[in-house]
Amino acid sequence: MSANNNSDLHQVSNRLAYNAMRNWKERLIEAVLLAAAAVSVLTTLGIVYVLVSESVSFFASVSIVDFLTDTQWTPLFDDAHFGIMVLISGTLVSSGIALLVAIPMGTIIAIYLSEFADSRVREAAKPILELLGGIPTIVFGYFALLVVTPILQVILPGLPGFSLLSAGLVMGIMIVPYVASLSEDAMRAVPMSMREGAYAMGSTKLYTAVHVVVPAAISGLAASYILGISRAVGETMILAVAAGMQPNLTWNPMEPAATITSFIVQVALGDLPHGSIGYQTIFAAGLTLLLITLVFNILGQWLRAKYREVY
Amino acid sequence: MKPLTNEQIRAVIAKGKFRDNVFKATGIFCLALALLVIVALIADMVIKGADRFTIDFFMNFASRRAKDAGILSAWVGSLLVMLVTALAAVPLGVAAGLYLEEYAKRNWITNVIEINITNLAAVPSIVYGLLALGIFVYQFGLGQSILSAGLTLALLILPIIIVSTREAIRAIPAMIREGSMAVGATRWQTCRYHIVPYAMPGILTGVIIGLARAIGETAPIITIGALTFIAFLPPAPFMGEPAAGLFDWVMAPFTVMPIQIFNWTSRPDPAFEVNAAAAGFVLMAMVLSMNAVAIYLRYKMRKKIKW
């Protein structure tokens, strides 16, 4: 600062101008960041817009009653039938098998890691589970078709080369890490004092885990199961590779069948003209898939709210 | 009630301990099964694909003869798609995470964005493929190009990057912000010079995990209609028709590793199984090494940072 008054004044006014610039720049940056955050909302709107608009054209030529009740799915034949139940049955059977593997295995691993294992085992197990969860699904598909199916055919001689069973089993293994790590987080969040209370009354570790920790963490467990269901219903490549892609209304896991997702893949592999009824079917199928996962997510949120325990 | 004798009490305790041990064994068995699957998967692919791990396999295009087929167009395609994905998803994801942690006021807009991000993470990946088919491929007219695929995968991994950015930022104590603001920094300067640099390892971990997920993703890319048989490379910068300078390759048709594996796996000729195994191993190696780097980063971070 010099003694010269004039130059002082000059500096002050300059700084005010600079400050105004700075505020303006701050506002601009905030707007840009908000726009980035809004991309996720745009994504959702885009998904809903695409699925609904194409489905509306689809349902202009196919009645919803036929869509829900027809027992054949032959959208690309001359004699076209659009019975989505055919695809839903494949999806439900394969997801059911996957969950029969993933939920017990995931829960047992979670209880073991959270209640029994010492910290060294836990430190080693977490990366293993993470690696398992990181394996690309196409590699799991390869594994299901070329490794698991031949092994299963030795045990079950009648099993065909493509089956919901082998795809479902491998899908179950794929989902284990999701269920295990979320369930473990939920159980580790249960306060130590509750376990100590149970031990003080003479409970064993297993009794404490099953009768104290699991009930206390049930909302977190439910959330992890719901995530597992979402994964199973939306899984695509394992089914496209190992379950065959023939539409087949069946509840028998020993048969090959198409699912909602593998049908979309099958159509996309071909060369369907934009705007044809075949092109629109995959959006109607996609909308069905999204609604199924949405139902499970709402159910999950409701379960979590209902059984939420606060300590 | 008659009091229990010592023997009876001992029997009860022994029974409880026995059950504990049975459960412990079951837990270890389940973990071992998970490990076994990983080992079996890798071993199978290494053994089956062993004699395909040659330079030729990496430098040849797909072919009708299994022996001559290679993964050149697939790995180049995967790398280029990942480049587009990273360029789109990282700035968007970090900016969104920064906004939600440092700028957002508690109002309904913030709530909508947060609920939306949680729900997007549960949307099946194939639905993103349908979104891209409708919007990128047809509405925007981007076609079945590397750009479409990269943007699709960017949207898919955006929630992963946003969540890890937020977690990393949340771990930075408030005193860092207060210190910065006390010396006159604006909010953006605080973010730019303090928050983002300190959150960098966490953000990087999220980015790597996101990209590892994206590189193995098959369904959305098949859905936008990527070709399965490509016997040429995308044009190098400044070599393309129509010319787009440095980015000539973004509009080119392409294939990626997972699609190549899918193509080989679904052929009836068992000779292609060998190729699928070898390519599967290469893809696994890419994904697992990316995951390993992320796990290592997180481990190092946890050890190093003490506020």
Would you write up a description of this structure?
- Chain A has about 300 residues and is mostly helical.
- Chain A contains 12 helices and no strands.
- In chain A, helix 3 runs antiparallel to helix 9 and helix 9 (about 220-235) runs antiparallel to helix 12 (about 275-305).
- Helix content of chain B is about 70%, strand content about 0%.
- The longest helix of chain B is centred in the first third of the chain and has 44 residues, at about 5-50.
- In chain B, helix 3 packs across helix 10.
- Chain B contains 11 helices and no strands.
- Chain B is mostly helical.
- Chains A and B meet through helix 1, helix 3, helix 4, helix 5 and helix 6 of A and helix 1, helix 3, helix 4, helix 5 and helix 6 of B.
What tags apply to this protein structure?
heterodimer; A: 311 residues; mainly alpha; 12 helices; disordered N terminus; B: 307 residues; 11 helices; 72% helix; flat
